[in-house]
Structures are given as structure tokens and as C-alpha cells.
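Preliminary data (for renewal application), zinc ion complex.
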Amino acid sequence: MLAVVKENPEPGVVIKQMPIPVVQDEEVLVKLVYSSICGTDIGIYDWIPWAQGHIKPPQIIGHEMVGQVVEVKSEKETKIQKGDYVSSETHIFCLNCYQCQIKNYHICENMQLFGIGRNGSFAEYATIPLRTTWKNDPSIPVESMSVQEPLGNAVNVVTKAQVKGKKVLVMGLGPTGLCAGMVAKAYGAKEVVGVNRREYRRELALKVGFDRAVEALDEKEYGTFEAVLEMSGNRVGIQVALDAARIAGKIIAFGIPKEEINIDWGKYMINKELSIESVFGRMIWETWEDTTKLLISGEVDLRKIITHRFKLSEFEEAMKVMKSGECGKVLLEV
Ligand SMILES: [Zn+2]
Ligand SMILES: [Zn+2]
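Predicted structure:
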């Protein structure tokens, strides 16, 4: 089968023929239909320090996906059957640690990551543990099924922010930021404003339902947002998030900075009484259930943020588009 492989501990990938994986106990073998490129995959491609610490080449990369089940290997009863359209939860939990015992599976202490710590979905076939396999509702458009990971992150972020009736700021309009705006509108936010340097992303934000999208926030609006969704992971973005939030407002931290960030603790955490919560991935499976409801009802249509499609063999071109930032979600058709 054709696969995108991090062959050596260096930047770049190799697109090559690999053996079809053999399904192990309590796993499914899936024939991929679509796999989408995540921001994380850029870091893996460029071989940033985080990737060096998490990937042992050779490794098939990719983790956002939808595929059809070819084989189920399980001793237990399962509702997943041959032919089902399934997606994978990237956070593969252990079921044994303290966090798993209290059902915080998404922050498992022994977490393995699909497409990062084990072979992933930029390939014609992949194996997924049954416990992290999500059976999709057949009424959802198949290409949307592949993009549920960023949507799920957004659902978790917006749920924590409790946006109903509030003025909401979204810092950073990558795919997850765009999803966050769509979900905030669906969950009854009074007004949703997005901030991004790129015109392309601001236009996309307006298309998917943001009330406004600006290059930089006018200082006159500082202190007026009841909920701020920090999706940028950018030093300036984080500073604006702190200033834009209203007194006693809430910030949800999602974007991961590449550098250490200093904040004026007294000014923001005490005098301003801000509350800052964070999101790392999706609640398993509560977030996926909420995500499904939004997709079935049509309140969120992920096809609006899918801007580019490539064949698996065209991965290098797809990565170029990803790096340009002139895109929404980039889909690989397998
Ligand atoms: Zn991802
Ligand atoms: Zn665990």
C-alpha cells in the first residue's frame, strides 16, 4: 500500500510502498477514505524538537481520518462491524492509570498517539485499537467525518467557555479556531469576533459565520469580551487575550506556544480575577457525541472549512499549501 512515512530522523517524508498492516487483538483494520492534515503534521514534517521526542522513525504519520472497517479482531462484543465508516480518537489511553480510572481518558498518563507514537492514517490502510475507534453516524458527510478532531477540540473549548449570550473572542483562525467560531454561534454566543493576520483566514471566518474578523483587535475593545478562546498559541495573541477579556471573564487556552510565556500574574489573575482553563483534546466520548449532534443537525458544516483536496501521492504539494497558511482544512483523498 502507498504510505507517507517519516523514514529518517530529519525534516521531510518519503512516499513509498509499505506492507498492509496486520490487525492485532482488539484492533480494527481500516481502508482509508480521507485523511486530513493537522497543524501537528507540519511540526512532524519539519522535525521540530517536539516531533523528535515523540516519533521513532520509520513511522507512517497522519491521525485525522475516516475509513471503512475491513476486519475486526476482538474477543469481546463490539458494535463496530465490517463496512462501518469509523474515525480514530488520536489519544490512545491505557485504561489503567489514575486519570483513566477517573474517566479522564484524554489526559491518560501513559498516552500513546495515533500517527505519532504508532503508525497512522496517511496510508491506504491503518490499524486502530477498538477502544479508540469511533463509529460515525451514516448521515454525516464522509469528508466531514475526517475533520472531527479539530471540531471536537473546538466543541470542548466552547463548552468550557459557556458562551451562551456572551461576546466571544477567537484568537487565531486556523481550522480549530474556525470551528470554535462555528460552534460558539451554534451554542448561542451573542457575538463572535475572530482575529488573524491573514486576510485569507479572515474571509473564511466570515464565510463560516463569524460576526466580525479583524487583523488586530482595536484597543477600544479591550476589557469587553466575556469569553476569550485562545487558539493561536502566539505570544502576542495570548497577551491580547488577557487584555481583551472582561473583568472576571474566562479564557480558554488551547493553542500551544513554541516558547515560554510570561504573564503579569497579579494584574490578570488577581486584580482582574480572570479564570483561565485549558483544553487538551476531546473528552472521550462526550465530546464526540456533542460533535455528532452538531454535524447531524447541520448547525456545523465542516465542508465549509475544507478548502483543498489532494491525492495521497500528492502529499508534498498538500504540505506546501498547509505551510503557506492560505488554506482551511487540507484533505487527502486516499
Ligand atoms: Zn491533530
Ligand atoms: Zn491511562
